[in-house]
Design a protein that fits this description.
The protein has no helices and twelve strands. Strands 1, 2, 3, 4, 5, 6, 7, 8, 9, 10, 11 and 12 form a twelve-stranded antiparallel beta sheet that branches. The protein has a domain of 132 residues. The chain is mainly β. Helix content is 0%, strand content 67%. It is extended and about 60 Å long.
């Protein structure tokens, strides 16, 4: 069973996918020493419920595993991605690419800044819902502090496709001893300039 919309809505609908049969071929290492490439292929007959879509599907994906680079002692850059495609029994085709770039900057011994840029480009469409891809172009930002007794995180996300920010959230906690802990959180809407939650 597969629940593709578990994180996409407030009341996600459970759907199941039957694979009768499915043949898979996975290669975890293509033999390139400095390039962590792996591939996956699948061929099968799929039935989706409750959409009742039932047909053959061929799928292939080439993945570049996570790679990191440290230009300085306090900076780490990591990247990963994949290219994939699927063909369906009704003649439809779907192809997509995904890339992710992470930057971690250690500002002090206690403070870090993280930013992640992710992008997905999609061509074609799928008759199924469980593997339908959506375009994506996001930038997430996080500033974190971790001291001996006090911790704080400030984060938000920006979508280039919708030109909208997610809520700017601040969460802090203070633990002066093992028996005491004080937590405070707040959220600010950068689009409407409103404080939405304290």
């Amino acid at each position: 069973q597969y629940n593709p919309d578990l994180l996409e809505g407030q009341t996600p609908a459970w759907r199941s996918v039957q694979r009768l049969p499915e043949f898979r071929w996975d290669v975890s290492d293509l033999g390139l020493a400095k390039v962590p490439l792996r591939t996956q292929m699948a061929l099968g007959h799929y039935g989706e419920r409750p959409s009742t879509v039932t047909m053959n599907r061929a799928f292939g994906q080439l993945t570049l595993g996570r790679r990191s680079w440290r230009p300085t002692k306090s900076t780490t850059i990591a990247y990963q991605g994949h290219v994939a495609g699927a063909a369906y029994g009704d003649g439809q085709r779907q192809a997509w690419t995904y890339a992710r770039l992470d930057l971690t900057q250690r500002l002090t011994d206690q403070m870090r800044f993280n930013s992640t840029y992710s992008r997905r480009d999609v061509w074609g469409a799928s008759p199924f819902r469980f593997d339908a891809q959506k375009p994506q172009q996001d930038l997430s930002l996080r500033l974190s502090y971790a001291g001996s007794a006090w911790q704080a995180n400030l984060s938000t996300n920006y979508s280039f496709l919708t030109d909208q920010f997610a809520l700017l959230t601040l969460s802090t906690s203070w633990r002066p001893s093992s028996s005491w802990n004080l937590s405070v959180s707040a959220a600010y809407d950068l689009n409407t300039k409103d404080l939405t939650r304290v």
